[in-house]
Amino acid sequence: MSNFWTPEQDKKIAECLADGMSASQIAAVFGCSRNAIVGRVHRNRELREIGFARSTGSRKAVTVKDVSISTRPRKIRGGTPNTTRMKRVKPAPVIVPEVVELVEPSGSGLPLHELSSRSCRWCINDPAPGEGGHLFCAEVTEIGRPYCAYHYRKSIGKGTYAERSADDVLLKVAA
Ligand SMILES: [Zn+2]
Questions:
Q1: Mean per-residue pLDDT for 10-31?
Q2: pLDDT of 92-134, one tens digit each?
Q3: If you measure from the C-alpha of residue 144 to the centroid of ligand 1, how many angstroms do you get, rounded to a whole number?
Q4: What InterPro entries does the annotation carry (predicted)?
Q5: What is the 125 CA–ligand 1 centroid distance (Å)?
Q6: What separation in Å is there between the alpha carbon of 59 and the centre of ligand 1?
Q7: How far apart are CA 120 and CA 55, in angstroms?
Q8: How confident is the model at residue 63 (pLDDT cuts 50, 70, 90)?
Q9: What distance in Å separates the CA atoms of residue 165 and residue 108, rounded to the nearest whole number?
Q10: What percentage of the chain carries pLDDT values higher than 90?
C-alpha cells in the first residue's frame, strides 16, 4: 500500500469516520491494512479531529459512552444525599442571654441640686404633694443615660410584672 493519499481518499476516509466506521471497516473499503488507516487518520489533522467512533484510537467516543452509562446512576444516587443533607442541617444554637442580677443602689439619695451631670436621676422617695424634698438615686450613670444600671433597667421595663409591682408595694410601705 502506498503512503500516498489523494484528497479524494482523505475525503472518503472522513466520510467513513463520520459514519462511525472503525479503522478495520475503513481498511476493508480501501483494501489496505487497518494500520494504514490508523496512520493516515493520525497524520491528517482534519481526519484526526473526526476520529474513530469505535476503536482504541477513539478515546472521545469511548469517553462519551462511559459517561452516558455512569452518570445516570450517579444522578439518582446524587438526589438521595441531597435530601439527607438537608435533613442533617444542624439547628441554630440557642443563645441564652446572660441575666445580670442588678442590685438596687443602697444610697440614701440626694436632693436634685446636689446631683452631678452623671448622677442617677431616679426618684427614690415619694413625698406628699406640695411637701417637696424629692430624693434621687445619685448613683453614677452610664454615659448618655439619665439613670444608673439598676434604674435604667427599671426604666425600660425589664423584669416581670410581679417584680415591678413588688417594688411599687415596697415603696408605698416605706413611704
Ligand atoms: Zn439609680
A1: 93
A2: 777 766 666 778 888 889 999 999 989 999 999 888 877 778 8
A3: 14
A4: GcrA, Homeodomain-like_sf
A5: 12
A6: 84
A7: 92
A8: very low
A9: 21
A10: 37
Distance 154 CA to ligand 1 centre (A): 9
Report the separation in Å between the CA atom of 95 and the middle of ligand 1, taken as the mean of its atom positions.
Answer: 29
CA of 156 to the centre of ligand 1 (A): 13
* 110 DSSP 8-state letter: B
Distance 127 CA to ligand 1 centre (A): 18
Paired with 140 in beta bridges are 119
**Which pTM was predicted?**
0.33
CA distance 29 to 24: 9
Alpha-carbon dihedral of residues 48, 49, 50, 53, nearest 10 degrees?
Answer: 70
What spacing in Å lies between the alpha carbon of 103 and ligand 1's midpoint? 10
Quote the ligand 1 centre to 138 CA distance (angstroms): 6
